[in-house]
Amino acid sequence: MLLNSLDLRHVLRGLRRTPVFTVVTLLTLALAIGANTAVFSLVDQTLLRSLPYPEPERLVAVWADWSKRGAQRDDYTNPADFADWREQSRTIEDMAAYEETSPALTGFGDPRLLAGAGVSHSFFDVLGIRLQIGRGFAAQEDVPNGPNVAVVSNAFWRGELKSDPGVLQQTLTLNGEPYSIIGVLPRGFSFPFMPDRDVWTLLQAEREGRGSAFLRVIGRLAPGADIESATADMSTIAARISSEFRETNEDIGIYVQPLKDAVVDGVRLRLLVLWAAVGFVLLVACVNIANLLLVRAAGRARELAIRGTLGARRGALMKLVVLESVLLSLGGTLLGLLFAELAISAMHSQLPGGITEYVAPVIDLRVLAVAVLAGLVTGIAFGLIPAFRAGGADPVGVLRGGERGGNTSISSRTRNVLVVANFALALALTVGAGLFARSLVKLEAVDPGFRADGVLTATITLPEASYGDADALRAFQHALDERLGALPGVRQAGLTHSLPLADLNTDASLFIEGRPTERRDGRAHMWYSIVTPGYLEALNIRPVQGRVFTEQDRNGSAGHIVVNAAFARQYFGGTDAVGQRVTPGDPGDGNWLTIIGVVDDVRFFGVDQRQTPAAYLPLYLYPQRLLFLALQAAGDPLLLAGPLRDAVAALDPTVAVDSVRPMTALVDASLQPARSTAALVGAFAAAALLIAVIGVYGTLSYAAAQRRREFGVRMALGASGGTVLSLVLRQGMLLALAGIGIGLALTALITRGFGALLYEVHPLDPLVFGGVAALLLAVALAATAIPAWRAGRTQPMRVLREE
C-alpha cells in the first residue's frame, strides 16, 4: 500500500493524457483555495491573532457609557473623569488617555500636517512598549504648561530625520512651537485606533470641567482581575462621580471591554461573512470536482477492471484514485497560493471597516500550513467516493459491459445528491450577494442632506504660538473666508470645525430656555458644527424655515444658532423653533443663542446612520484652531487646489494646508464598507455560480450519455424525440427545484445574522429570495437544455447496433 514511484508515474501519465480534465480541476481548486487563503490571512491577522503587545489579554478599552441617555455605550470622556477613573480604580492597574491630533510641521520644506497623537504619560507603559531610542513620557511632564516633548515613529525617524543617531538632540517645530524629541518608537509599532502616527505628544490637559469629552481610554488589568471584576469596580466609580457631579455626569456609566474586542467590533461580522462566502465557494468546488472525478472513474472503469482481473488488490486500485486526487489538490493548492498573493493585494484596498489601516495580511507559515492542510483534506475528501467505487467495482461485469459493473459508473443517487448540493450552495451564496447588492443600491440612493459634487475640502491648523487668543483666530479666519470667497471659480466658500462624514464630530449638553435645568434631560443633547456664513450654502444645506447665517450676523453682538429638522422635531415638536433660545453651556452664564433658522438634516456620521439633533454655531463666537475649508466650484473642484493653497500662504506661509480632496471622497469613504462587502461577496457568488453551472452541465451531460441505450430503446418502441427531451428536462428541473428548496431553507437560517450589515433590507427579503430562485431555475434550464436536446436527437438504430 505504500506509495512508490511507479504509481506516481502512472498517475502523472494519466493526468497528462486528459489535459482538459486536469486543467479544469486545477483551476477550479486554485480559485477556491486561493480565495480561501486570501480571506483567511485577513481573518487570521484581524480576528484570530492577539494584539502585538505584552500580555495582550490584560489590555482593555474603557469608555464613557451614555446608553442611559440614548447615546452609545462606547463614547469619549473628559480629562477630569479620566483622572478620577485612574486614581480610584483598584482592578485596572493603570490607564492612559489618547486623542488624534494634526500638528503642523515647519522647518522640513513646505508646512504640512502630521498624523499626530496626544496621549497621557502612561500610554506606552500601559501597552508595554519599550522605545528603540530614548525614553517615553514622564508624569511630571504631563501637566498643564509642561515641557514640549515628543516621541516620533520609527518611520518618521528613518524618513524625515534620515535615521540620525543624534535624534535626541533634535527639535521639531509643531504648531509654531519647538518640541524636544525624547524617544523613537520601535519599528512596526502601531496602535489600531490611531494607525501610522508620525509624532506623539503629551495631552497636558486641564483637569477642571467635565463638559467637553474628547478622550478615549485604554487600561491594563491588575494581576488577578478580569473583565467582570473591572466592570463592577468601574460601575461603582461611575455611580460615585454621577452622584457628585449630577449636572454633567448623571446617568453616565463606564463600559469596560477587552481591547481586542474594541478593535475588531466594527469589522468582525463583515469578515466572517466574507470567510463564509469563500467557504461556500470551496464547497461548491469540492462538489464539482467530486463529480469530475466520478466521471473520470467511470471512464477508467475498463482500465481498472483489467487491473483487477490481473491481480491488483482493491486497496491498490483505491490508492491510485486517491493519489490522483491528492496530486490534483496539491497542484491546485500551489496555484491557489499564487492566486492568493494577487488576491490579497486586490482585496486589501476593498476591505470593509478600515481594516487596511492596521492590518497587513501576508501568507506566512501559519497561513501556508492552513492552505496546504485545506488542500490535502479537500483532495482526500473528494477522492474518497470515486476511490470506493473503483475498489468496489465488479471487474467481470465491467468487462462484459453489463449492468453488474454499474458500481464503476456514477450511481444515480450519488449524482443526484451532488447536483442538489450544487444548487443549494450556489443559491445560498447568490442570495447573500443579492442582499448586499440591494442594500448598497438603497444606500447609494440616500440623500446625505448636502451636495458633495463640485465641492473641494481641505484642512488647516492655526498654531497657538502665532494665534494665542480668540481675537487673533477671528481675524485670520475672517480674512481667509473673504479670500476664499473671492477666488475665481468659487461660487461659495466657508469654514467649519467639523465636516459631515469626516469622523470629527462634537456634542454638547443642551438647555432650552424656560425648561427645567436642575437635572440634565437625557434627550437634551446635540451634535454641532461651528461654521462661517457661506458654509451652509457651499454644501447646499437648504433652509426649511427661517434663514441661515449672513455677514450681518458676523458683525452683530447677538448670538445666533441654526438647527436641523431633527433638532426642531425632537425638542420643539409641533411648535415653531425659530425664535426659541438655547445654550450648549451653563444656563447660569446667560449665554443664550437664538434659533434663526432650521435646515435640512445632514448625515453627519455616515450615510447609513439615522438623523440626530444637530446645530450650527457661528465661528465668530467660537473661533477654532483646527478648521476644514469648503469651496463650491463652478467647474472641476480640484482646479481650486492651487489657488486655495496660495490664499492660505498669502495670509500666513507657516500654516499647513492638508487633506485637499473633493467632498465626494468623504461620501465614497462612508460607502466603502458596503461597496466592498457587496463587491467581494458578489465576486465569490459569481465564481461559485459559474463553477456550479459547469459542474451541473457536465454531470447532466454525462448522465444523459449513460442512458443512451435506454433512450434508444424508448425511441425504437415509439417514443418521440420530444418525449425523451422532456424526460431529461423534467428530471434535471426536479433536481434543481430540490436544490433550490433546500438552498432557500438553508439561506433563511444563515441570513438572519446579516441584519446589522444591511440598510433598509430585510435579511429574508422576498424580492431577493424570489429573484435568485428564478435565476437559478433559469440557469438550471440552460444547463439541462443541451443534454436534453442531445438526448432527444438519439438515433435508435445506431445505439442498438453499438450495444
Structural commentary:
The chain is α+β, with helices and mostly antiparallel strands and 803 residues long. Helices cover 49% and strands 16% of the residues. The chain has 24 helices and 24 strands. The strands form 3 sheets. Strands 1, 2, 3, 4, 5, 6, 7, 8, 9, 10, 11 and 12 form a 12-stranded mixed sheet that branches. A hairpin with a 2-residue loop joins strand 8 and strand 9. The radius of gyration is 34 Å and the shape is elongated. The model is unreliable at 402-410 and 517-523 (pLDDT under 50).
Structural class call reads: alpha+beta
Residues in helix, %: 40-55%
Strand content: 15-25%
Average predicted local confidence, pLDDT: 83
- How far the N terminus sits from the C terminus, by CA atoms, comes to 37 Å
Q: What characterizes the major β-sheet?
A: 12 strands, mixed
| Rg computed from alpha carbons, rounded to a whole number of angstroms | 34 Å
Number of strands: 24
Contiguous helical run count = 24
Which term fits the overall shape?
elongated
In terms of per-residue confidence, which ranges show pLDDT below 50 for 5 or more consecutive residues?
402-410, 517-523
